[in-house]
Design brief:
Blueprint lengths: L22 H12 L3 H13 L3 H25 L6 H9 L1 H33 L4 H18 L2 H31 L10 H4 L6 H15 L20 H27 L11 H9 L2 H36 L18 H17 L4 H26 L8 H19 L4 H37 L1
Helix pairs in contact: 1-7, 1-10, 1-12, 2-9, 2-10, 3-9, 3-10, 3-14, 3-15, 4-5, 4-14, 5-6, 5-12, 5-13, 5-14, 5-16, 6-12, 6-13, 7-10, 7-12, 9-14, 11-12, 12-13, 14-15, 14-16
Length: about 450
């Protein structure tokens, strides 16, 4: 192994990421991170949790994300700092609560790639079983690492390709769904049943479904982690515009997908929530449709969707490492490529190992992803209200009403999560609090050690 070059040496506080991204790159990053095919892979879980009120669940999730997006936009303009929720909370709530906010959102960012590694490996193992599930998890993870290693510019080009192909996949699925409905399958038409059900709306079921549907929207927030890599550093509204654009597109699309496919779901007796879309197309359209979709999702989406996810995680690790909230080596940037490569390797290997350990507990992994995100979003809303409480530019709607409503919706969804996910989330939060306490003691010890030198 060659020794580190000067370009790879840590500059920590002075470390800077390469600025190369424009508005289109940010939107492509967000859409690729979210994956506009996400409702197709999660609809079985949302259908079961919502008792058929799948469209209402996605609508509630979209409303929750709207208020969250407003808080992201507000804070990204006020504090353009890589690290997402971590950077915002650190500036408004202090370094201790800022660390816990980063710790919570890190749970989401680390587990989302693990979940996608697992889901894509399941599809590939069915289509090409020679490697097995564990082998495919490693293959997907290592390909992701190799492509991200080349820099955010390469990742951006692949993101654009991924978004284009996903648009094709979603369009084909929607056309096949509407054709099946016109042929008499399911409800036989686009009815209001996925919104109101057979017996009216039962809100506990809607919020239970929304607690999973939220997972489909996760990714628009990761755009804020690229704030130090935009070409125009003076355009503080760039990140906000990209976030709102991505959320608007996905909200309309996801609710429509849930509405259309939700009208077809009564045509089948679902056996496996994770394979619901394949069962649905296989039984209402034909086996060829489910096989084609499986290949498309695994090859086109699987190997590209993980790129922005891992890139986003690495930027959070980079920011926390640069601030000495995580090991300082994570704040190291490779000079030639402008890539935080130590953080990138960590952001790939941790999800890979997690996927290998939890590959048979996909439903628990999915719930934990949503839990970490919602916890981070709650801290974000609190950050907005605290940061602007004494500001002359405080807006009643953007700085009080919107974050308060977002906070309430996030709490309502959080409380309807699976108990096992809440327990594991409590363990993660406790670990973060213990680690934070250790960081604080270390900081005080360092300060005490410097005082005699300063006095002398």
């Amino acid at each position: 192994m060659s020794s580190p070059t000067a370009a790879e040496s840590p500059s920590m506080d002075g470390a800077h990421l390469k600025r190369s991204l424009g508005f289109g790159d940010l939107v492509a990053f967000g859409l690729a991170y979210i994956a506009i095919v996400a409702p197709l892979t999660s609809l079985g879980f949302v259908w079961a949790a919502s008792d058929g009120l799948i469209a209402s669940s996605f609508l509630v999730a979209a409303i929750c994300m709207y208020f969250t997006a407003l808080s992201y936009v507000t804070m990204s303009r006020a504090i353009p700092n890589a690290g997402s929720v971590y950077g915002f909370a650190r500036r408004s709530l202090g370094h201790r609560l800022g660390f816990l906010a980063g710790w919570l959102i890190l749970m989401d960012y680390l587990l989302v790639p693990a979940l996608v590694f697992t889901l894509m490996a399941i599809g590939m193992a069915l289509l090409a079983p020679a490697l097995g599930l564990a082998g495919w998890i490693c293959v997907v993870a290592l390909i992701t690492l190799g492509l991200n290693w080349c820099g955010i510019g390469t990742t951006s080009k692949i993101n654009a390709f991924s978004v284009a192909m996903q648009c094709v996949i979603v369009t084909v699925v929607l056309v096949l769904t509407i054709m099946a409905l016109n042929g008499g399958a399911g409800n036989g038409a686009l009815t209001a049943q996925p919104f109101v059900g057979d017996r009216g709306i039962h809100w506990p079921h809607v919020f239970s479904g929304a607690s999973i549907a939220v997972m489909a929207f996760l990714g628009f927030d990761a755009i804020s982690t690229l704030s130090e890599e935009t070409r125009d550093s003076s355009d503080q509204g760039l990140i906000g515009r990209a976030i709102l654009t991505v959320l608007a597109v996905t909200s309309v699309l996801f609710v429509f997908i849930a509405w259309a496919v939700g009208n077809l779901m009564p045509a089948i007796e679902m056996q496996d929530p994770g394979a619901a879309i394949f069962e649905l197309l296989g039984q209402t359209v034909g086996p060829w449709a489910s096989i084609t979709l499986a290949w498309a999702l695994a090859v086109v989406v699987g190997f590209t969707n993980t790129l922005p996810m891992v890139a986003g995680v690495s930027r959070v690790l980079f920011a926390m490492g640069r601030d000495r909230q995580l090991p300082a080596t994570l704040g190291r940037v490779h000079g030639a490529s402008g890539v935080p490569r130590v953080a990138l390797v960590t952001a790939t290997l941790v999800p890979m190992v997690t996927a290998l350990v939890l590959r048979d507990r996909v439903e628990v992994l999915a719930s934990m992803v949503s839990l970490g995100a919602l916890g981070g979003f709650i801290m974000l809303h609190i950050s907005v209200m605290v940061y602007f409480r004494h500001s002359d530019q405080r807006s009643v709607y953007f700085h009080i009403v919107a974050p308060a409503l977002g906070l309430m919706v996030a709490l309502a969804v959080l409380l309807r999560m699976h108990p096992s996910a809440l327990k594991m989330g409590a363990v993660w939060l406790t670990m973060g609090m213990v680690y934070s306490a250790w960081l604080n003691r270390r900081a005080r010890r360092d300060q005490d050690g410097q005082r005699p030198k300063e006095q002398g």
